[in-house]
């Protein structure tokens, strides 16, 4: 058996090989990418008769390097970084941290304690696509929430009426459509109910237009603290700069995986994953138009996830 520890990084990977007695067989720093994988295979071919005799510890369970090793038939163990840190504290006296030392710790860990850790199983292409899609979904939710928090902070500084009008729905199509029309309190006080209803209709709302428009107008025209007009320009720009990237996420992207060349089963899984995200009441949806009763929301959600998957597949992404 050959036990391998890999301390991975973006530009290179430190590798340590141990035998069953814990003796160091080799240490290398390999480049990232195809050449690094080739060098790793050569290094292991000199010391193992079969791929199954290679046991690898690495602090991740996904990525191109892990995929290449799984495809080669090596046994891969995804080690939680916290577990690796605890193991290092128990077995390494030096407090000095090094990538080469971390690689040896990982090799030693899978040599002696691998029964306490989870092996990485090779999945089908569809399963891998769903995993990437799920990570993209998670990242979109986190990104959207950060943008909403920034928008809320900016509005709190100069535009409390907008916060009152939309409350927790700053990521909704209503909020985006109205803030495009009225980015400052002055605009908010002057816009008519008819124009608000028109903006809501263009954003996709079909029900309770007049009632919603009247409610929004009442909040925008309610007495509130305000800044002098000249000092409003800068925070208004910050609102539009936050809104802009969110709007661009839903345009000019392939939908449903077709533009990405996904097989039909992957597109079906994509639909099953993303369609529920846009139903009313979902708090985790990355969709901008997150209320129910909107046309095109499912299409936009799938498009954003498809675009994220396309970005993740480009060289250098990750």
Rg, Cα atoms, Å? 26 Å
Query: Which regions contain 5 or more consecutive residues with pLDDT less than 50?
Result: 248-261, 272-302, 307-318
Strand order of the largest sheet: 3-2-1-4-5-6
Major sheet summary line: 6 strands, mixed
Count of helical regions: 13
The CATH homologous superfamily of the domain at 2-122: Ribonuclease H-like superfamily/Ribonuclease H
In the CATH hierarchy, the third-tier topology of the domain at 2-122 is known as Nucleotidyltransferase, domain 5
Distance between the termini: 32 Å
Biased composition (Low complexity): 296-318
Organism: Candidatus Nephthysia bennettiae
InterPro entries: Transp_IS110-like_N, Transpos_IS110
Domain Transposase IS110-like N-terminal: 4-160
Features:
318 residues; 6-stranded mixed sheet; Nucleotidyltransferase, domain 5; single chain; elongated
Could you explain the architecture of this structure?
There is one protein chain. The protein has 318 residues and is α/β, with parallel strands linked by helices. The chain has a domain at 2-122: Ribonuclease H-like superfamily/Ribonuclease H (Nucleotidyltransferase, domain 5, 2-Layer Sandwich), CATH 3.30.420.10. 53% of the residues lie in helices and 10% in strands. The protein is elongated. Residues 4-160 form the Transposase IS110-like N-terminal domain. It comes from Candidatus Nephthysia bennettiae.
């Amino acid at each position: 058996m050959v036990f391998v520890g890999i301390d991975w990084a973006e530009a290179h990977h430190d590798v340590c090989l141990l035998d069953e007695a814990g003796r160091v067989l080799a240490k290398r720093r390999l480049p990232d990418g195809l050449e690094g994988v080739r060098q790793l295979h050569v290094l292991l071919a000199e010391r193992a008769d079969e791929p199954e005799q290679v046991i690898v510890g690495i602090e991740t369970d996904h990525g191109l390097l892990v995929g290449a090793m799984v495809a080669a038939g090596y046994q891969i163990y995804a080690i939680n970084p916290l577990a690796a840190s605890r193991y290092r504290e128990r077995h390494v006296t030096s407090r000095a941290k090094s990538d080469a030392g971390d690689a040896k710790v990982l090799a030693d860990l899978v040599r002696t304690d691998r029964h306490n850790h989870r092996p990485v199983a090779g999945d089908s292409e569809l399963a891998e696509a769903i995993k990437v899609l799920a990570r993209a979904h998670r990242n979109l939710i986190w990104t959207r929430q950060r943008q909403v928090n920034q928008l809320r902070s900016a509005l709190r500084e100069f535009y409390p009426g907008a916060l009152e009008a939309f409350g927790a729905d700053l990521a909704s199509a209503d909020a985006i459509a109205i803030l495009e029309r009225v980015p400052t309190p002055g605009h908010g006080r002057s816009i008519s109910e008819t124009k608000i209803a028109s903006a809501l209709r263009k954003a996709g709302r079909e029900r309770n237009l007049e009632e919603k428009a009247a409610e929004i107008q009442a909040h925008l025209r309610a007495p509130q603290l305000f800044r002098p007009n000249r000092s409003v320009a800068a925070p208004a720009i910050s609102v539009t700069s936050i809104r802009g990237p969110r709007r661009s996420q839903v345009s000019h992207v392939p939908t449903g995986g077709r533009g990405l060349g996904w097989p039909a089963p992957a597109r079906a899984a994509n639909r099953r994953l993303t369609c529920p995200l846009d139903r009313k009441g979902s708090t985790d949806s990355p969709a901008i138009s997150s209320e129910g009763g909107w046309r095109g929301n499912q299409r936009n959600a799938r498009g954003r996830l498809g675009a994220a998957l396309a970005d993740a597949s480009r060289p250098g992404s990750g």
